[in-house]
Design goal:
The complex is a heterodimer of chains A (about 290) and B (about 350).
Chain A lengths: L1 H30 L6 H19 L3 H27 L5 H22 L15 E4 L3 E4 H23 L1 H11 L1 H6 L4 H26 L7 H15 L4 H21 L4 H15 L10
Antiparallel strand pairs in A: 1-2
Helix pairs in contact in A: 1-5, 1-8, 1-9, 1-10, 2-3, 2-4, 2-8, 2-9, 3-8, 5-6, 6-8, 9-10, 9-11, 10-11
Chain B lengths: L5 E4 L3 H18 L1 H4 L2 H26 L8 H17 L4 H23 L4 H20 L10 E2 L2 H7 L3 H28 L1 H11 L1 H6 L4 H27 L1 E2 L1 H4 L2 H15 L6 H16 L4 H17 L3 H10 L9 E4 H4 L3
Antiparallel strand pairs in B: 1-4, 2-3
Helix pairs in contact in B: 3-8, 3-11, 3-13, 3-14, 4-5, 4-6, 4-11, 5-11, 8-9, 8-11, 13-14, 13-16
Classes of the chains: A mainly alpha (about 290), B mainly alpha (about 350).
């Protein structure tokens, strides 16, 4: 029973990892940019939510209404102001600039909020649970997070393949110059992609802050989880990313069940096994 | 009328002066135990070890195009191997340093097979995962102190040299020797056939592939050699600290972020760049380190500005304007008549 419980909780945790991963996957798909500071933006969003809840006295879930637009705006400004200048054939500039951003965000947060771990309180919903047959209990909050993750992935999928914005994303992804000739402003399209990515990061950050305690230094760890979910699921496949997140969450929980020290290690090993056996991920997009 | 005769030369007056100056500086540095204080020698050792890490990262990222943010995997691995060999096998730390390097190169082989499947930026994060796996694994080894780490036993430290000053001089010379070794290896590598291939790969992978260069093999060799030398450097770093813990050994800030900063500021893809970068980095650190987090904020900011405004760093800036080169690496045409004053 303990094992089934570990697996079920792992699946729910996987939803959060898929949220970490979705934004990363999106901007890589659109502009081949890997944002090393992605995890630090998640932590930044969590701190933003913390300030919002304490300043306005609202529930962290309501703070989403502020955090998500602020993060999206930040993403757009960042892309137009800095990151667009780094895009090109050379992979080094975007990598190093986002690495620098990561250092700046971490130390900026450290300066403002100190290194103390923080946590947000979402009220009664945190301890509420649903009893399932067979002694299983599922927390309402983890379940809610999982369902939101599924909804976010579905919404991104819809945006990418069904909307005009998604058409623009796919066009600049395929051939930047031709897309430009067709009247798309690629600087603007990239800005929107980063805005969307950081909007998802905003949701992920709020959920992270409700689920566990956080401090300025944990960003890189979240980047790695998101990255592993992307690679396990297969590059460019959003539903694959969700499954990648679930595999990662389940592996970690099974590892923790065997030995508490093996939780993170088990997740990394699952990732390395997938990399060894299927280097393009379990469900690569065919192209 | 004289016919123009040309020859191809690698050296120039600048490289000859630089070589002479380099040997004079090296001689002064070798003699440091006689003229420098204890604190100065510690600082100099740290500079040498950062110089080797920076040169090695520059070889990886600047020449082989392998941008790694996980070199702390090998720094920490080397450090832990030194402690393990000294504590469990009773080896002298001096003998353990090259063996740690060898083991580092050995462990890099399967790692390379795995992460070379990832490209570009994903390769970078892949190297980070490897470093995390190393960190978490060593934290599980309870005989090496687990998560809280361990110290090098006093008896082993004493066995290195009879007196404290002799011991300090020894670790100092080892650090200096390491930096010289790394520079020499990279210099000779770049002047060899392999170096020509690497430079070609750096400039264009597609073009070099069409000339029949086996890109995978060259990158693999560079990765493994770099890992070995990085592990040896790591062993030295922790021989100096006398204490190791998973968080210190596999710190991404200490062994990768600072190193990247040094190379980017100095000039990536040049042999001179890391030398300039390490001087700038330590000047900044010695003057601004009291500022704490603000200092790190500044470092991040400077790195971003340099990457955006002068992506080839300080040395790239100088080289573009003057054509100056301190290490005789690139070939240039020399007009023999002009040289002989005819």
């Amino acid at each position: 029973m303990e094992w089934i419980n570990a697996i079920v909780q792992g699946v729910l945790l996987g939803g959060l990892y898929a949220l970490f991963a979705a934004g990363l996957s999106l901007i890589f798909g659109v502009m081949r940019l890997v944002n090393i500071a992605h995890g630090d933006f998640i932590v930044l969003a969590a701190f933003l939510a913390l300030t919002t809840t304490s300043a306005l006295g609202v529930s962290p879930l309501l703070a989403l209404l502020i955090v998500v637009p602020v993060m999206a705006l930040l993403g757009y400004v960042l892309q137009r102001g800095i990151l667009n200048q780094t895009l090109g054939d050379d992979i080094l500039p975007p990598l190093l600039v986002t690495f620098g951003l990561s250092v700046i965000i971490q130390n900026g947060l450290l300066e403002i909020y100190s290194a103390d771990p923080q946590k947000m309180n979402a009220g009664a919903i945190e301890t509420a649970s649903l009893a399932l047959p067979g002694d299983l209990n599922i927390g309402v909050l983890p379940l809610l997070m999982f369902l939101v993750a599924v909804a976010v992935i579905a919404a991104l999928q819809w945006v990418f393949y069904r909307s005009a914005l998604g058409r623009a994303f796919r066009a600049v992804s395929d051939k930047q110059d031709i897309a430009q000739l067709m009247g798309l402003n690629k600087a603007h399209v990239f800005g929107l992609a980063m805005a969307l990515s950081l909007a998802v990061v905003g949701i992920a950050g709020v959920f992270l802050g409700i689920r566990t305690s956080f401090d300025p230094s944990i960003g890189p760890g979240r980047l790695i989880f998101g990255f592993e979910a992307v690679i396990i699921g297969g590059l460019g496949n959003l539903w694959g990313t969700l499954i990648g997140g679930i595999i990662l969450g389940v592996s970690q929980n099974i590892g923790a069940q065997i030995n508490p020290g093996w939780q993170l290690l088990a997740g990394h090993i699952a990732f390395l096994i997938v990399l060894a056996v299927k280097p393009r991920g379990l469900f690569p997009r065919i192209d | 009328m004289t016919t123009a005769t040309y020859s191809i030369s690698r050296s120039s007056p600048a490289t000859r002066i630089a070589a002479l100056a380099g040997f004079l500086v090296l001689a002064a540095l070798v003699a440091a135990p006689w003229w420098a204080g204890r604190a100065d020698m510690r600082l100099l050792s740290e500079i040498f070890l950062y110089l080797s890490l920076a040169c090695l990262w520059n070889l990886l990222a600047g020449y082989a195009g392998l941008v790694s943010v996980g070199q702390q995997a090998f720094v920490g691995f080397g450090g832990y191997m030194l402690f393990a060999l000294a504590i469990f096998a009773g080896l002298s730390p001096l003998a353990a340093i090259p063996i740690a390097g060898l083991l580092g190169a050995l462990v890099a082989v399967p790692v390379a097979f795995l992460i070379f499947r990832l490209r570009g930026a994903y390769f970078a994060i892949g190297t980070w995962v490897i470093a995390e796996v190393f960190r978490l694994s060593f934290a599980q080894v309870s005989s090496l102190g687990g998560g809280s780490g361990t110290s090098l036993p006093v008896a082993i430290v004493r066995s290195m040299a009879s007196s404290r000053s002799m011991r300090e001089a020894t670790t100092y010379w080892l650090a200096l020797g390491m930096a010289v070794l790394v520079l020499a290896v990279i210099y000779l590598l770049l002047r060899s056939r392999n170096g020509l291939a690497l430079t070609a790969i750096r400039d264009s992978e597609v073009a070099s592939n069409s000339f029949g260069i086996d890109i995978w093999r060259h990158k693999f060799i560079v990765y493994v050699v770099t890992a070995g030398l990085t592990a040896s450097t790591g062993a030295l770093i922790f021989l100096q600290k006398l204490r190791i813990s998973p968080d210190a050994a596999f710190s991404v800030n200490d062994w990768t972020a600072f190193v990247i900063f040094i190379v980017v500021i100095g000039g990536i893809g040049t042999l001179e760049g890391p030398i300039i970068g390490v001087i700038v980095f330590f000047l900044l650190r010695e003057t601004l380190a009291d500022l704490g987090t603000t200092y790190l904020l500044l470092l991040g900011l400077v790195a971003i500005v340099v990457m955006l405004k002068a992506p080839r760093g300080i040395w790239g800036f100088v080289k573009d304007r003057t054509g100056l080169e301190l290490f005789p690496l690139s070939r240039r045409v020399v007009d023999e008549n002009q040289k002989n004053g005819k």
